[in-house]
Every structure is written in C-alpha cells, then in structure tokens.
Design goal:
Elements lengths: L9 H12 L5 E8 L9 E2 L3 H9 L5 H10 L4 H8 L6 E4 L5 E2 L6 E6 H6 L1 H25 L3 E4 L8 H14 L3 E2 L2 H7 L9 H5 L4 H11 L4 E4 L5 H17 L4 E6 L4 H14 L6 E4 L5 H9 L6 E4 L1 H4 L9 E8 L2 E2 L14 E8 L2 E9 L7 E2 L2 E5 L2 E2 L6 H13 L3 H4 L9 E3 L1 H21 L1
Parallel strand pairs: 6-7, 6-11, 8-9, 9-10, 10-11, 15-19
Antiparallel strand pairs: 1-5, 1-12, 2-4, 3-5, 3-17, 12-13, 14-15, 14-16, 17-18
Helix pairs in contact: 2-6, 3-4, 6-7, 6-13, 10-11, 11-12
Amino acid sequence: MTSRALLTDLYQLTMLQAYWRSALTREAVFELSVRALPRQRNFLMAAGLAQALDYLAGLRFSEADIAWLWETGLFGKEFVEHLEGLRFTGEVRALPEGAVFFSGEPVLRVTAPLEQAQLVETRLLNIIGFQSSVASKAARCVLAARGRGLAEFGLRRAHGGEAGIWAARASWLAGFTGTSAAEASRLYGIPVLGTMSHSFVLAHREEGEAFAAFARANPGRAAFLLDTYDVAAATERAVAAALELRARGGRLEAVRLDSGDLAGQARAVRRRLDAAGLREVRILASGDLDERSVRDLVAAGAPIDGFGIGTRLSTCADAPVLDAVYKLEEYAGQPRRKRSAGKATWPGRKQVWRRFEGGLMAGDVVALEGESAEGLPLLEPVMRKGRRLSGLPGLEESREHARRALESLPDALRGLEPARPYPVEISAGIRAAAARADAELERLQAVVR
C-alpha cells in the first residue's frame, strides 16, 4: 500500500507546525479505541492492522507533497524543510487481527515523538475503523450461516476501490470462503468466486443457449443464474445443460438464485436436481442479503449451500460508522485525559486482560501497563523503532485467530439481537491515575487564575 502523508486532515499539519515551533517534541502515547458499540453489535472484530503497519513503515512526504505544502502558503520554510525528513520511528502495540473487542478497550497504541504520533491519527482511524466495521458485520454473517459458505460480492457498491478491496480482506479474515473481487484475490490470496450475470443470459437468443455457451467456456466451474426469466423453466434448462456437460466429462458446479422466494425456490430446484442425479450441484443465493436474511433462510431449512453477501456488507449498511477515536493518553511521561461531557477518556498506557471460563470469554479488565490483572493480555508489540516486528501473523493465521475468537464468544453474544453488554472493568490503577491527573490539572489552573 502506498503511504501518502497528505492523506490526513489539515489540522494535523497545522498542529504539527505549532508543536514544532513550541519545541513540543517529547514522547507521546495515543490509543485507538471505540467509544460505544453500535446498537446492532454485541461485539467488534479487530481488522486492518497489516495495512496500518504498512502505512506507518512507509510514512514520508513526497516531492509532490512538499510542493503542495509550499503552495498553500500556510507553512513556514523551515517547518516544511523539516517535514522532508519526517519518518515514523515509534512503537506500536495492538490487538491481533481477528480479535474480538468491546467499547473502551484500546485496539492499538502508538508511542512516538508527539509530531509523529499526532500526524497518523486520521489515516489509522480510516484504516482500522473501516476494516473493523466490515469484519464485525462479516463475523455476524459467519455465525448466522452456521457453516454454510459465504462469498463477498460487494465491490460494485463499495465506497471506492480501496474500500471494496479492504472489505473483501476483512470478510475473509472473519471467516468468509471467498470474494468476487479479482484484485483482492491477487493481493491477498483469497479464493475468487463467481457465477454469471443476467446480462450474459440476455445477450443470447434464449436461456438454454446461454447456459450451454457458458458451460463450454467454463467446463470445470460452470455456474448458472436461474432467475433472469422464470426459475422453474431455467431449472429444466440447467438440468439439460448439466447432463450434456457431464456426458462430455465436465460438471455443473452450482446454480444461483438472486430474487424472489429464495427458500421456496431453493427447495424446488433441489428436488429437480436430485431427481436428475445432480446431487453434487450446489445451490447459491444472493440478492441484497445480510446476516438476518441468512439466519432466517438457515432457520427455515432452505437447501442453500452458500450465500453471496454484497451491498449490505461492503457498506456496513446497518452500522456504517464506528465511533472510533484516537486520543492522547500520556505526554512526556505524564498522564493526559480528556474530560469533555460524554467523551471523557482514561489516562495512561493500558493493557486489556481477558478471563475465560470453560473456554468461553467471561470478562475483561482494562488496566495500566504493568498493573496486574487476571487473565490473558491481549495487546501485543507489533512495531519497534518504526519497523514491523518479525514473526507477525499473516492473513491465514489471523483468520484462524478470528475463528477461535468466535468460538469463544458466550452464547448471548453470538445472536443477532442486542444482548446484555459483555463485562469490561476499568482497573483501580486507571481510576487512581485519572484522579491524580484531574487534581494536577486543577492545581495548574488555579495557579493561572
């Protein structure tokens, strides 16, 4: 991924100039977290860390960036020259990709000189927030499908090409079985899946001709779309084409339903395929599906082997935004905390500890780094001195981590309806640090008054 330093908000740059002129250059600690879970989510899944580390490792201002900074007239000569040599030299700790997390828990912690840690805020929120949104919705689809295949079909409705590719990646991480996006397959090794569109059928004089032509061109992985005209008639034509294909040594891989009464149609199609001896042919369903429609089709016993999930996944239609924030928690070794109404933060470098009972998650504690707590620590070192640490998990290992994380969810959190919030406790050490920070702030303000 190309790292573009200007993929940020203007105020990051104007703050950097003010920091530089005031010699505020000491070490800062920022943490990325989510203030509150969307009402439609019982949990979230961390995603996007690999792209975040790529961004940090490649952070630099290009010649074109420097030229634009000059052109704005907003920045002084010496400051712009200083930015030419800016690189990220800090440390990062983060939840592993695929980890389940909850509101108020740090997902990622950056420790670096203040200007570096400040500059990366916008892009980190962009990367982690979007992919975690998609992974969280995809995880709900995985739970609803109960082992049936799931293909990500959302590129055409995604809000831009990068978003579409990242949606495919985040869905694969969460447990999907493939994507329709060719570029995502090339970049990340995700299995690429697809059938045909209605236009292919419409381009031929009649449906049977279209099926035969597609089977000849794709003898090893032919899949027919059945609802361009009439599903029952299309099923008969698909059976005929499949039997002809079999006679030539090929096979029909699947048929797809994209509209109407998917459960009823799937039952009728399954009966006809089985009667023709085509039990190996799978039935796929698509058409504005999401986790709720998948759940309902599975509960109805519809003989559907896999689902294509597109628009509602790549746009996270029911919860399109995470209330993700990136806040300064420490500067020059001193705790910092925001006290805004409804947006207060807890100070200090933190760790998340998770308890398990009977293999299931039982409760988390957010504690100061170095403070003892029961359970397993979740935040792990991933970058030091601006370099990604060796031995970090690849996408396949992260996918396995996500699978185990979903298996460890308590039953109440696995459903699609809002559940009682998972217990997350703020430690006594953090509360004491907040009280000290508040007292120090009051003392300093009293001196100024």
